[in-house]
Amino acid sequence: MKKYLHNLHEYSLYIFIFFLPWHTIYIIREVFYATEKWQYGTIGIYISDITLVIWIILSIYLYKDYILKRIFKKPHLLLVGLLLSLWSFVSIMWAADHVLAFYFTIKLSFALDLFFLVQIIPLNIHKLSITFFASVFIQSLIGIYQFTTQNTFAQKFLGLQHHDVFSGGNAIVQTSGERWLRAYGGAPHPNIFGVILLAALLFGLYILIKKKYSTLPTILALMGLSIITANILYTFSRVTWLTSLLCIFTFTTFVHKSKKYNLKQLLPSLLLITLTALLVIGLSGNLFFKRISQDTVITHNSISDRALYISQSKLLILSHPIIGTGIGNYTNTLKDESLPKRPLWQYQPVHNIYLLIISEIGFIGFILFAIFIIIILYTLYADKKNITLTQATFIIVFIGLLFISLFDHLAWTSHFGLLLLFLTAGLSLRDSLELN
After folding, report:
1. Virtual CA dihedral for 274, 190, 15, 13, nearest 10 degrees?
2. Are 410 and 348 in contact (CB under 8 A)?
3. Where are the domains of the chain?
4. Does the reported pTM lie above 0.90?
5. Contact yes or no for 292/238 (Cβ under 8 A)
6. pLDDT digits (tens, 9 = 90+) for 67-126
7. Whole-angstrom Cα distance, residue 351 to residue 2?
């Protein structure tokens, strides 16, 4: 029985990792104002949530003595994490939508559980990385199909939605006389898909340099790396492009300075990424150069929208500076308090999670979150001489997410973004405990 539970525990994590990039959800609640759906009021259970809960329960049951011995080794981090979770729970009291605030508190609590447990539970990191990479590889094939055919299809079991290049509200690149649908993959927005791809790109580099394989697995891994690179470009997410370049440069620098690895092991992967990028840009150069030069109608709208969202968040912060609007209640509070009134779809979270966190859980909550992140970064910096390639990979993804969070809200509002942020943070701090 014990062996069965250990196997279930191990594979429930792999299943969670596999489904994490997918947005298969069972919707419990949808909210409509008149005939318009309030997207940020939706409550549902993702398929990855079920496997995560199973893994957390089995982790506590199978390793409870082990957890009690090790979890107090970082008491400051544990205390701040508990206070952040508690403060989010308390914010339910003044939230306009108590149910939604409770839902977001549960999500944050599970993310914190994941953060602490992955640091101390024995894991096979290599299998975990391969599982995530394989999952995103499959999703990348969908992204290639979407962009090259300019056609999408809905599939509820995969969490796929239909997107039309001529319908309002869809992410497109528009130049004079042309409208191109950006690659969504299996994500609700290309920017979220971009972060999924960025994490998979780093995991792919790690997989290829970490161990030597026979010819067929190596070819498949390189093929996946190439397709993921193409999809990063097809998302047309400029912040993802920039972050990808910075992450690849940082990873390459770490390998170059490492005593255990050398650049020759990384060169085939870097060459493939470069050639793929040149080929993709060469085939659709006008779109990429228009996107970079900001010479598109959509780009100008995007910049003006972000400026509007920042000004709206400032108004909410001034109205609720200490305690915030309540976790998860940014958009509905904005709808009720902002003037003049706008269409519901225009009430979006501010594209900066730091401003968003201040808005939702006030300066008290933001200070707790900031201290939490600072402790993580300081711990990593203090131990920088002992960082392994495995840790470095997760650190780069984690810091990349923090950088992207200056320009997007997905690391707080997106199911995938929130869990990935805390997952990579936890794996960055983990000891070298692995299952063989």
Report:
1. 80
2. no
3. 2-429
4. yes
5. yes
6. 888 888 888 999 999 999 999 999 999 999 999 999 999 999 999 999 999 999 989 998
7. 47
